[in-house]
Amino acid sequence: MTKKLLFLVLVLLIVSCKVQRAPISSPKSNNISSLNRTEYIKNYKDLAIKEMNRSQIPASITLAQALLESDNGNSTLAQKSNNHFGIKCHSGWRGNKVYHDDDKRNECFRKYKTVYKSYKDHSNFIVNGPRYAFLFEYNPTDYKSWSKGLQKAGYATSKSYATMLIKIIEDNQLYIFDKGGTLTNETYSAVDSQEVVLADIDNFKIYTEKHRVYNKNRIDYIIAKKGDTFNSISEELGMLSWELFKYNELEENAKLMQGQILFIQPKRNKAEHGLDFHEVMNGESMYAISQMYGMKIKKLYEKNLMDVGDEPKVGQKLWLRNFKTHTDVIEETPIIEDFDE
Q1: Which domain holds residue 56?
Q2: 296, 269 Cβ separation under 8 angstroms
Q3: Does 320 reside within a domain?
Q4: How far apart are CA 26 and CA 127, in angstroms?
Q5: How far apart are CA 178 and CA 12, in angstroms?
């Protein structure tokens, strides 16, 4: 009897230990790195704002998409592949890949080394995608149009995608970031905060210690400093010798002046949203105006029914986005009345 009793006691102890240890290995207790929506916003809002400054995509849209697509950063795709936007491989992707079931079984998704690379690739994906080009016609603070536009362009298959984005933005007041709100010195302990340092972000705000990179009309540019040459800037930014001349519509024998705007990406066919007209001031040339708005000079001539080489008159109204019509020309022409004496 004693041996049997001892055996039963040992069995009960073993079972008891197993029961007590079970919760430690449960899926719920393992998910110690899970984030709620507020924590995710605090951790990654700075990346969304930085990308807004670089690409002109509203920070509210970027954050809402990330929150929705990554389940507040808790999805398997986000945690194991740093893919916070559910971007699939597509034919042109040359980076790392991972496979998950989505609309179809075993679909290919992009895999990133860091969270920031996911945010940056998301911006590039929209900026460079022809089907998303119309989005940049919307006001950068018009998050509702952006949300509906993303659904229209087919970013996601859900018919309620825009509604979900708008709800996330409004519930969490993400639209504040689009207007520069809450941009204080407060810092947040992001999961990969070492990547937020500007010096570590290629092609973003600072390429070197010498030049700061600005952005207008979704085009990066620098301001020439004393002692700069086209060659020195090309070497500094890792550009080919012909790029600065082509992007700025300059001849190869052009002289570089201190304070001159130099685009380091191709100019666009029209000015950014909201800048419809320009009234010519004294000393302004067509080329200077084209640089001022980051638009190709040929398009500036075309939109205003002017011959290439002609210069505008002081006070003249130049069209920057739409084409000037013959009716506009007639309306601008002063009427000279002859009075019989």
Answers
A1: 37-185
A2: yes
A3: yes
A4: 42
A5: 62
| Orientation of helix 59-70 relative to helix 37-55, angle to 10° | 140
CA gap 78, 112 in Å, rounded? 9
Take residue 141 and report the two structure tokens written for it. 């603070």
* Phi, psi torsion values for 108, nearest 5 degrees: -90, 125
Gap between the terminal Cα atoms of the chain: 141
User: Is 337 within the bounds of a domain?
Assistant: no
Query: Residue 146 belongs to a domain with what CATH number?
Result: 1.10.530.10
For 206, which DSSP code?
A: B
Work out whether the CA dihedral 11, 14, 20, 25 comes out positive or negative: negative
Is 268 part of any domain?
Answer: no
Are 138 and 160 in contact, with CB atoms under 8 Å apart?
Answer: no
Please give the residue that has the higher pLDDT: either 311 or 241.
Answer: 311
Instruction: Measure the CA–CA gap between 330 and 299, rounded to whole angstroms.
Output: 21
Task: Please say whether the beta carbons of 182 and 188 come within 8 A.
Answer: no
Write the Ramachandran bin of 30: left for phi over 0, alpha for psi from -120 to 50, otherwise beta: alpha
Q: What is the pLDDT of residues 207-223, one digit of tens each?
A: 444 777 777 888 888 88
Instruction: Give me the amino acid identity at 78.
Output: A
User: Sorting pLDDT into bands at 50, 70 and 90, what band is 181?
Assistant: low
Mean pLDDT of the chain: 78
Same domain, 89 and 162: yes
Q: Mind listing the pLDDT tens digit for each residue in 18-69?
A: 333 232 222 333 344 578 888 899 899 999 999 998 888 999 999 999 999 8
Among the candidates 234, 263, 292, a domain finishes at 263
Looking at 263, 286, 303, the residue that finishes a domain is 263
Residue 102: CB atoms within 10 Å: 14
Prediction pTM value: 0.48
Residues 306 and 223 in one domain: no
- Looking at the structure, do residues 133 and 221 belong to the same domain, yes or no? no
pLDDT tens sequence across 104-141: 677 888 999 899 999 999 999 898 888 999 999 888 88
